[in-house]
């Protein structure tokens, strides 16, 4: 069991540390002596422990899976770290964090990993090491069953696939159940320089440009969310998605575009948007858009 400081508990509960200490004092779990908070016998019975820091002296810590509710500390959903999750999937915690980063759940920070808005929506919680100050993220144990995560470790994932929109001709709304029929009707028949098979001339131009820029990229990458949506392109090193809007005059396409943009905003995904005007002078427009996310190609 891991333990976190009282300040970390307060941060998770979104309250002031002073207010939490006052609450714990009212409960009789801590007391103040010589201007320092100390753990009482009752606090020890409830799981509290004392730690010593060479710089700050003694401080109180609590089990990571407790929170305050109606004036009482209670157990909540068990939180597990990257090491435990990695062990479950038989990979290292370092590799797992890279996968989480690609899924858009965490981002690399100077001193560790920082949770994203999407990661928070999945129940992840960010903490800070009391000694080093580095940041790390703990996850509810049900993350082991998350379909976007498990699909990475399964060669065949039984997840409904919503087909991509055909960019060069109007496409009706297609449900996942008939995705195979859609792909037969609008197959990806155009080959790019790096061997990707894409569905429109504009996508060929974009894919070739990314290849010429020496940027590793994926085509038709599923967004790591519950909604079954795919991006046109994905740059994993910076977690940047690229969408080409090629049929904006079509009402159904415009509605789908609106829904996709709302999802990108909902989860704070990094998004580059391209249209027909950009394609005609892509080498002028795409590098500038990439630079906004710290990707320099020239």
From TrEMBL:
Name used for this protein in its record: Glycerol kinase
Top-level taxon in the UniProt lineage: Bacteria
């Amino acid at each position: 069991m891991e333990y976190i400081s009282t300040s970390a508990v307060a941060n998770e509960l979104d309250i002031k540390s002073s207010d939490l200490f006052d609450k714990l004092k009212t409960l009789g779990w801590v007391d103040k002596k010589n201007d320092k908070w100390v753990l009482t016998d009752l606090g020890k019975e409830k799981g509290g422990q004392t730690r010593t820091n060479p710089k700050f002296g003694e401080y109180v810590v609590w089990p990571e899976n407790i929170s305050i509710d109606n004036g009482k500390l209670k157990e909540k959903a068990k939180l597990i770290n990257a090491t435990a999750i990695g062990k479950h999937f038989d990979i290292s915690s370092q590799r797992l964090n890279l996968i989480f980063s690609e899924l858009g759940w965490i981002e690399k920070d100077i001193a560790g990993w920082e949770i994203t808005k999407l990661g928070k929506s999945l129940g992840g919680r960010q903490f800070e090491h009391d000694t080093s100050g580095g940041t790390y993220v703990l996850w509810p144990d049900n993350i082991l069953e998350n379909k976007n995560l498990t699909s990475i470790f399964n060669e065949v994932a039984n997840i409904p696939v919503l087909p991509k929109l055909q960019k060069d001709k109007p496409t009706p709304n297609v449900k996942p159940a008939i995705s195979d029929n859609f792909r037969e009707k609008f197959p990806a028949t155009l080959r790019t320089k790096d061997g990707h098979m894409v569905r429109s001339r504009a996508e060929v131009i974009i894919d070739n440009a990314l290849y010429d820029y020496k940027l590793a990229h994926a085509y038709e990458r599923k967004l790591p969310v519950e909604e079954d949506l795919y991006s046109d392109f994905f740059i994993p090193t910076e977690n940047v998605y690229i969408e080409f809007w090629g049929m904006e005059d079509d009402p159904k396409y415009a509605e789908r575009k609106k829904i996709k943009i709302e999802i990108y905003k909902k989860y704070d995904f990094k998004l580059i948007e391209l249209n027909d005007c950009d394609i005609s002078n892509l080498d002028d427009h795409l590098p500038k858009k990439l630079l906004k996310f710290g990707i320099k190609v020239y």
